[in-house]
Amino acid sequence: MTTMRAAERREQERREYNAYLSECPGHQLLATLSDKWVTLVLNALADGPRRFSELSRTIPGASQKMLSQTVRKLERDGLISRTVTPSVPVRVDYELTALGESLLPVQRAIKTWAEAHIEEVHKARTEYDDRAC
């Protein structure tokens, strides 16, 4: 009986923690921003608007499906805007919104930090792996 109550309590704690995470602003946005394709699209648009085909050429390795999903996600979050110009073929341009532009200094700071400390991280990983064996 006690084991069942403990299991029920752990399950309740897990549900409460997951509810907390789903409402936490940092967790909500970090889940999106940590996606490698999101970072690459934001970086590609930092220099100005681009057509989908330009984004595709600028971001090698991204499938059309992945790129489409990523720009939709960013548009939904208000980080980029999509402008459709009726023509033959239809022209679709993407660009950073003010909200998206406000994220660039944060993204650049993380990149700068990573470049400055990657050797230390590699060293720590090696030391950890050596101890684990």
UniProtKB/TrEMBL annotation:
Keywords: DNA-binding, Transcription, Transcription regulation
Record's keyword annotation contains Transcription regulation: yes
Ranges where the HTH hxlR-type domain occurs: 24-122
DNA repair recorded as keyword: no
InterPro entries linked to this entry: ArsR-like_HTH, HTH_HxlR, WH-like_DNA-bd_sf, WH_DNA-bd_sf
Origin: domain of life: Bacteria
Protein name: Transcriptional regulator
Source species: Micromonospora solifontis
